[in-house]
Each structure stands twice: as structure tokens, then as C-alpha cells.
Amino acid sequence: MKQIKINQQSYHGNRFDKTKLPDIKAAGYVSASLLSKVRNPIKFMKAEPDEETQAMYWGSLVDCLWTTPKLFNVFYAVLPEDAPRRPTEVQRKAVKQSPAAIKSIAFWDAWEKSTAGKCVVPADVLVEARKAVAMLKEHPISSEILANSQTQVVMMGKAPESLGLPEGVLAKGMMDMLPDSGRFTDYVVDLKTTNNLAENLVHNIMFQFDYVVKMSFYSILSEACGFGVRDKALLIWQNSKAPYEVKVRELGPNDIAFGKTIIRKRCEVLGKLDPNHIEAFYDTEIKEMPLKSWAIEEYNNE
Description:
The protein is α/β, with parallel strands linked by helices and 302 residues long. The chain contains 14 helices and nine strands. The strands form three sheets. A four-stranded mixed β-sheet has the order 1-5-6-2. A three-stranded mixed β-sheet has the order 7-8-9. Strands 3-4 form a two-stranded parallel ribbon. Helix 5 packs across helix 9 (123-138) and helix 12 (211-224) crosses helix 13 (253-270).
């Protein structure tokens, strides 16, 4: 396991091929997101690849603008505010095209050619994203973390023994930032966005998206790469709605240690998955599901 210099497209291009299971070695790189999906083996084996959500789009945009602004023009293209409407198929096939249609077709043909492979950002969305980044820069802790960190740290190679995977299996991870000076050098760090920073909701999101497992995975890989023991984690939370306030929350050593035990269990499950035999993971137990007291009260009050 070592740190390597590789762009995001190449990193994400090294995908795990679940159809090759149970041969984990042939399937590819084990990642934090992969182990998170293994939480539900049936869904993992049966589901189609995830499509990018609006929340993921926003988070990636802010992440790029804040941690690697020099790469913005590599991955993104800004759609001008005065861009004409995209031409319809009817307009394109019309025998006699209007001047407006001709202008629109010419613009969009040139635009799509020049921006091929890039993510398109409307100008007004970019304005808001820059406001979010400005808030991250103004916040004393998030700005301190970034100033003392490497960004977009990629780690790839032989999976550490502590994961409990068979010999020769590969693993990978990419972190938004990794402190290498200052007071946070025993932490792994990630930026997260959500539309509500109420404490109880943030706790629910942490569980829903398996962040303790993901941060614990980064802890394992960073130590294997020679970055020292990272037994704590910082999550930089930012509201995805204006004024884009920021809160920094910590996962302590006990949480990271617990996350590592869950990772080993997930790796064990991963080693048992076979696309042709997943019936062992079916829930075949019939459990009683009694009415909750609040439901009984509601019925009685009808």
C-alpha cells in the first residue's frame, strides 16, 4: 500500500467487478464505498451502479473548488448565463431552420465538442458554490485543517493485513485531505455536505451513509501508507443551503476502533459473496412485528 499520484478519473476507473466474485483477487480494488455497500449483500449484488445525485454533484463541486481549485477547469465547464436553449430534434431536422435555431444548433454543437468529458456547471450554481467555499475558508478550523493538509490523497496497493482479506487482494482510498502538519496529524479528515446541520439529523446521516466505516477504512490505509497512526477522524460538515454554515465534528479512538471491527466483518462477508449463490444472505426468519404504543394510542383515539 502506498500513496500514488493519479487523477480522479484514473482512480475511479479502477472499479471493482462484483461479477468476478467469489474471486476477490480478480474483482479489483476494495474501497470504503464498496465495503459500505456490502452492508446489504443482497442489494450490493443485485443493484445497478449508483447514479450521481444532486447532493453528490454539489459536494464534488464544492470539494474541487476548495481543495483543488487548479483542477476545476480540468473537470468542469461553466455554462454561460446567456446560452441559448438546447435545440430540439424537430429543430435539428427541420428543412427550413429559423435564425434562432441555427444559432442554437451552432452553439450547442461547439459547446459539446469543447466540453466533452467534463461536468457542466450553470453559472448561477457556480456563484453559490463559491459562496460555500468562501465560508469554508472563513471558518477558523476548516481553514486551519486545509492549510496543514495534503489534498486529494490517493492510496492504492496490496490490502493491509488488518482488513482480514486474503493475501494478494488490492485496496484503494482517496481522501479529500490528510493533515501532515499542525495539531491534526493523528486524524483522517473528510468534507461532508447536508441540507440540515441539526445534531440529531447529522447523527442519522452518519449512520445512513456509514461514515464510521469509511473513516475507519481511511485510518487503516493511511497508517499502511506510512502516515502514522490515525486513530481519530474529523468530519467537516457544511450546510448545502445558504449561508452554508460549517461545523467540525470528531470521531474518537473508540469509534474508529469500533469501525475497524465492522470493516473486518464486511470483508468477511465480501469473501463469501458469489453472484450465483446469494441465497445464504436472504432473511428467512419470520419475526413478530407488534404495534408500537404510539400507533395503538392513535387507533384508540379515532
